[in-house]
Amino acid sequence: MATAKFIQRSIREKRSQEMVLWYHTKRLEKLLASNMLKRKEIPGDGNCLPSPVLHHVGWPMSTPELRLKIAQYITDNITDYISFVTFEDKFTEEEELKTFIDRGNKTGW
Question: Are residues 27 and 49 in the same domain?
């Protein structure tokens, strides 16, 4: 008896979540359309920052090239960005920056 009520409540909650998602999706689509924009699916492959940037600005470069440029820019201007990079206690600042650059040259941020 209690299990059946729990299942029914779970089904109602799931339907409610689906309705909320549908409503907000439609609202977002209308808002985007009113600004002559549309959604662009971006795969969650570790390139979710550079891929849409390249799509939006239309630069003729690959995702790895943009990652390298971003990593190089940040390291060239590290004093402006050092407060945004978190360091683990086990690494020195230099080791963490090297890891950050290596990550930027591949995928992972």
Answer: no
